[in-house]
């Protein structure tokens, strides 16, 4: 049973890596098998729903890890503005280190999600879970309009990642991190 789990996990990890770099339509099932050094029959054995199921589960896996990472940073930061800067700076470092290939794993797949209902739902659920984590942190720290602020943070950071990746420059992530921190400092003093 451990071998089946290892193959399934390796398939998910390989697919998540490729989807993150190439998107949904740019990644083929055969490429996942080749890159993961996986047996041909394993993909449809573990993912009978094919590429759509594989992409949806990859979103759940890496999106969930990212949610835990965001939650830990915000919980451990001395304040939320510092936490937001830590998040955007870390994302900028990771993006540059990948030669601007690896954007947000959920955001990259969400761009194709309207064509693929299962994937659209998985991305929407993941964005909603990130929103909940951020909103809850904002609420715990006494921010008013926590729901709207959480949406603003996610939208701004996702947009900054898209711009940074397209421009091959981390400046948008640095700028958005600084402006969001400034916004949060102003909101906090009004709360």
Automatic annotation (TrEMBL):
Put simply, this protein is called Transcriptional regulator, TetR family
Does the keyword NAD belong to this entry?
Answer: no
Highest taxon of the lineage: Bacteria
Q: Where do the HTH tetR-type domain residues begin and end? A: 5-65
- UniProt keywords, alphabetically: DNA-binding, Transcription, Transcription regulation
Q: Which InterPro entries match?
A: Homeodomain-like_sf, HTH_TetR, Tet_transcr_reg_TetR-rel_C_sf, YxaF_TetR_C
The answer to whether UniProt assigns keyword Transcription regulation to this entry is yes
Pfam families per record: TetR_C_13_2 (PF21993), TetR_N (PF00440)
Q: What does the record give as the DNA-binding region?
A: 28-47
The molecular function terms in GO held by this entry are: DNA binding
């Amino acid at each position: 049973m451990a071998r089946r789990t290892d193959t399934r996990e390796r398939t998910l990890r390989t697919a998540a890596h490729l989807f993150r770099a190439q998107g949904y339509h740019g990644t083929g099932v055969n490429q996942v098998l080749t890159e993961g050094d996986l047996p041909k029959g394993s993909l449809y054995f573990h993912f009978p729903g094919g590429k759509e199921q594989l992409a949806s589960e990859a979103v759940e896996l890496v999106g969930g890890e990212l949610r835990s990472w965001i939650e830990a940073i915000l919980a451990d930061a001395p304040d939320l503005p510092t936490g937001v800067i830590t998040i955007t700076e870390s994302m900028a470092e990771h993006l540059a280190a990948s030669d601007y290939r690896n954007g947000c794993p959920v955001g990259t797949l969400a761009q194709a999600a309207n064509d693929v209902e299962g994937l659209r739902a998985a991305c929407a659920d993941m964005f909603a879970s990130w929103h909940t984590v951020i909103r809850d942190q904002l609420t715990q720290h006494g921010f008013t309009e926590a729901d709207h602020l959480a949406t603003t943070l996610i939208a701004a950071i996702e947009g900054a990642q898209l711009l940074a990746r397209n421009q091959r420059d981390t400046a948008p992530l640095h700028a958005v991190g600084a402006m969001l921190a400034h916004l949060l400092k102003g909101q906090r003093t009004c709360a």
